[in-house]
Amino acid sequence: MNDNTEDNDVKMDGQIDETTENESNTSTPSISKDNVEEIMNLETMIKGYMSDLEKYQEDLRDQASMLKDSYEQDAEYTV
Asked: Going by C-beta distance under 8 Å and a sequence separation of 6 or more, which residues neighbour residue 9?
């Protein structure tokens, strides 16, 4: 086999070309403790907002029901 057609990672003298290995290692981002804490804080905030929204939806449902009942009990608005 010709040396030019061999694997690209092997140089002519038989040494492994490590530039491709180093390039792949630098593409993965490092996650610091501050980033993890920030993500955890965001997750906590989102869960809190979702909980608040569920509570507001329930309150709105109750108020809509009360308004509907008040119109149904009023003879002027019944059909």
From this structure: 16, 17, 20
pLDDT digits (tens, 9 = 90+) for 24-39: 555 667 888 889 999 9
Residue with the bigger pLDDT between 9 and 78: it is 78
Q: Rounded to the nearest 5 degrees, what angle is found at the Cα of 59, between the Cα atoms of 77 and 53?
A: 135
Q: What is the DSSP letter of 77?
A: T
Query: Are the CB atoms for 10 and 17 separated by under 8 Å?
Result: yes
- What is the number of residues in the chain? 79
Token duo for residue 15: 């040494």
- Whether the pLDDT of residue 49 is over 90: the answer is yes
Q: Are residues 77 and 71 in contact, defined by beta-carbon separation less than 8 angstroms?
A: yes
Q: Token pair 């809509």 is at which residue?
A: 64
Residue 65 is predicted with a pLDDT of 94
The 8-class DSSP code of residue 3 comes to G
